[in-house]
Amino acid sequence: MSRILTGIQSTNIPHLGNILGAVLPAIELSKQAGNESLFFIADLHSLTTQKDASQRIQSVNSVAATWLAFDFDTEKNLLYRQSRIPEVCELTWYLSCFTPYPMLANAHSFKDKSGRLNEVYTGLFTYPVLMAADIILYDAEYVPVGKDQIQHIEITRDIAQKFNTQYNQDVFLLPQAKTDENVMIVPGTDGQKMSKSYNNFINIFLPEKELLKVIKTIITDTTPLEEPKNSSTCNVFKLYSLLANDTQIMEMQANYAKGGYGYGHAKTALYELILTKFERARTRYAELMNNPALIEKELQIGEAKARTMAQEKLKLVRSVLGF
Ligand code: ADP
Ligand code: TRP
Q: How do strand 2-9 and strand 35-42 relate by DSSP bridges?
């Protein structure tokens, strides 16, 4: 059996890029027989950037509702809030005493982020230590992450190894990063990679009218309606083909090639496809967001299980350390 663990920062409503690039592939992986998935909402990490409490509650709920709306099986797997497992903070302190300072000072992500800030807080600096604690507290074997996070997994392995060597005991399992080379890059409304940082994202959970409005903002060229169009360079077509089946893709390609088919038509087709494809998830998401008690209940089930695992591991760590 493989134990898969990943953290999802709660800084916004997950967009179409997050859903196609991260949520759905992770749920697929969790369905494979023999896999056990621990997916948690990295709300402690989100404090490095998000200070507003009510926004935090809203984004934690919206991340949880997204996973649940896409049928993440919380019987077989765990979905929990990082902040509800206080053991992770205790372990972070222990690990910080085994983390060489230059390793954190030289981390790419810290250098990038701190370079852009006027004031750099210690939490940003120790971010990778908390991340290491997230992972090794549960003996995770595989950690699905984007390329930008690989260095953090290497740091995790280094810290775990240092600890094990110091006490001459395999207290922690060394995790492996799992990156998918073939992961699709979903374009945003402006054609760049869809990202909340570029404000070019599509929130598939928006009410119909607002969703259509966002889809209408997708940038296209100015080829007149009656002329043939190049589907391979068109953002609307790219987004459509990430969601459509082969027949639908071929039909749209033919429409582009024959002319008399405008970008407005293509946008309407994309909008309708989003509505049909995500009908169930949209309904379920709305139900959950209108009833946060349902989300709370699901999270608490995961948190009780995660806490038991965490307490067991910390008991060992404390005894090894002589506390
Ligand atoms: P954002 O760029 O909006 O801040 P994150 O960096 O929080 O998104 O990414 C969360 C997850 O979603 C990561 O696993 C990342 O690889 C995936 N992801 C984000 N944007 C895209 C995209 N445009 N296409 C595919 N996957 C994406
Ligand atoms: N740092 C990760 C990100 O920004 C989120 C995260 C926190 C995480 N803890 C983790 C990912 C543990 C994997 C494992 O995407």
A: parallel
CA distance 164 to 170: 5
Helix (H, G, I), strand (E, B) or coil at 143: strand
Q: Cα(131) to centroid of ligand 2, in Å?
A: 6
Q: Are 45 and 127 spatial neighbours (Cβ–Cβ below 8 Å)?
A: yes
Structure tokens given for 106: 């030289």
Using CA atoms, how far residue 140 sits from 126, 150, 175, in Å, is 20, 15, 6
Separation between Cα atoms, residue 5 and residue 29, nearest integer Å: 11
CB 135 near ligand 2, within 6 Å: yes
Cα atoms in the Cβ-side hemisphere of radius 13 Å centred on 221 = 12
Token pair 């080379």 in the structure block, residue: 181
The answer to whether the pTM exceeds 0.85 is yes
The angle formed by the CA atoms of residues 149, 153 and 159, to the nearest 5 degrees, is 140
294-321 residue pLDDT tens: 999 999 999 999 999 999 999 999 999 9
Ligand 1, atom 18, lies closest to the CA of 18
Taken in order of first residue, the domains within the chain and their CATH numbers are 2-185+292-321 (3.40.50.620), 208-277 (1.10.240.10)
* Largest pairwise CA distance in the chain: 78
